[in-house]
Design goal:
single chain; mainly alpha; 0% strand
Length: 293
C-alpha cells in the first residue's frame, strides 16, 4: 500500500484538528516505512554503532594501547564525523522524498488531504526515521562503552547525540525547502550537495578570508554573526561547550563564551538552531502549497 492508498483508506476526512492530526500521522507512518525500506538507514545505524565502539576500543592504538576508552575521547573523535555525515544524509533523504516521488505525489495530493498536512507528514516521518537510526546507533554503542569504560563524561556524548538529532531535523527541513522550490530532481540534489559543501567545507574558508579582509574590525564582530549563520559550526560549538574542554573551544567558541558565558551561549545556540529549522520549513510550506505538482 502506497501513501495515497493509505490516506484514501483512512477514516472520512474532516477539517477538525483530530482529523488533520490523523491524516498527518498516516502520511508520517508511510514515510517512515518507506525510509526504512531503503535499507541504507540500517547501514547508517550500524555505521554509527561501529564507529562509537571502534573509536573507543582502538582510539589509542598508535600509542600501543588497545581497550575501551571513556566518553570524552569518543565524543571528540566522533564530532567531525557527525558534522560531515548527518547534514548530507538529511539533505539527500529529504530531497529524495519529494523529488523522488514525482509519480506518486500528484496522486497523493488528489486525495482529500491538505498540502500542509502532506508536507508535515513527510517531515515528521523522515525526522522519525533519521532520528531512530541515530538514536539506536549512538545508544547501542554508548551502552557498551558505558558498561566497559564507565559513564564518566557521558554528558558530552549525550550532547553530541542531541545535537546530531537536531542537525538531522534541520537538514531535512532545508531539503524539503529545496525540493519544493526546484522542480527538477537533479537540480534539487545538486543544490543540496552545494549547500552541504558550503556549510561544512567552504564556510570556514570564507570566514577566514573575511577576517583577513576586515583587519581593524574587532574579531568578535565578524566571528559572532558568522557562527550564528552556520548551523554546522554552531553544532560543533555546542558539543565543545558540553564537553567543557577549553583547549578545543577555538576562536568562535571563545567569542561566544566571552559574550554570553557557557550557559547563555548554549541557550542561544539551541534557540538559533531551532529557528534555522523553522525558517526553511516555513519556506517549504509556502512554496509546496502553491506549486503546480
Amino acid at each position: 500500500m502506497n501513501t495515497a492508498s493509505a490516506v484514501a483508506a483512512a477514516p472520512v476526512a474532516t477539517a477538525s484538528v483530530p482529523g488533520r492530526s490523523r491524516r498527518i500521522a498516516v502520511i508520517a507512518r508511510e514515510e517512515y516505512r518507506r525510509a526504512l525500506e531503503t535499507r541504507w538507514l540500517f547501514a547508517f545505524t550500524a555505521l554509527f554503532a561501529a564507529l562509537v565502539l571502534g573509536v573507543s576500543f582502538f582510539g589509542l592504538v598508535q600509542s600501543g594501547e588497545v581497550g575501551f576508552q571513556g566518553f570524552s575521547r569518543v565524543t571528540l573523535s566522533l564530532l567531525n564525523l557527525v558534522l560531515f555525515t548527518v547534514p548530507l544524509t538529511g539533505l539527500v533523504l529529504g530531497v529524495g522524498s519529494v523529488s523522488g516521488s514525482a509519480e506518486t505525489l500528484p496522486l497523493l495530493l488528489a486525495q482529500p488531504v491538505g498540502r500542509g498536512e502532506v508536507l508535515a507528514g513527510k517531515y515528521l516521518g523522515l525526522t522519525a526515521a533519521l532520528g531512530a537510526a541515530q538514536a539506536i546507533g549512538f545508544g547501542a554503542g554508548g551502552l557498551i562503552v558505558a558498561l566497559q569504560a564507565g559513564p564518566d563524561q557521558i554528558r558530552g556524548f549525550a550532547a553530541l547525540t542531541a545535537v546530531s538529532l537536531l542537525l538531522g531535523s534541520l537538514s531535512l527541513a532545508a531539503a524539503l525547502a529545496l525540493a519544493s522550490i526546484l522542480a527538477d530532481r537533479v537540480k534539487a540534489l545538486a543544490a543540496a550537495v552545494f549547500l552541504w559543501l558550503l556549510l561544512v567545507i567552504a564556510y570556514d574558508l570564507a570566514v577566514l578570508g573575511a577576517t583577513a579582509l576586515l583587519r581593524g574590525v574587532p574579531l568578535q564582530s565578524v566571528l559572532f554573526p558568522a557562527l550564528l549563520l552556520n548551523p554546522v559550526d554552531l553544532a560543533r560549538v555546542l558539543v565543545t561547550l558540553a564537553v567543557g574542554s577549553g583547549a578545543l573551544f577555538g576562536p568562535t567558541s571563545a567569542v561566544l563564551v566571552k559574550l554570553l558565558g557557557g550557559g547563555g551561549g548554549a541557550l542561544l545556540g539551541l534557540g538559533v538552531l531551532l529557528l534555522e529549522t523553522a525558517v526553511p520549513l516555513a519556506v517549504a510550506a509556502r512554496v509546496f502549497g502553491r506549486r503546480d505538482w
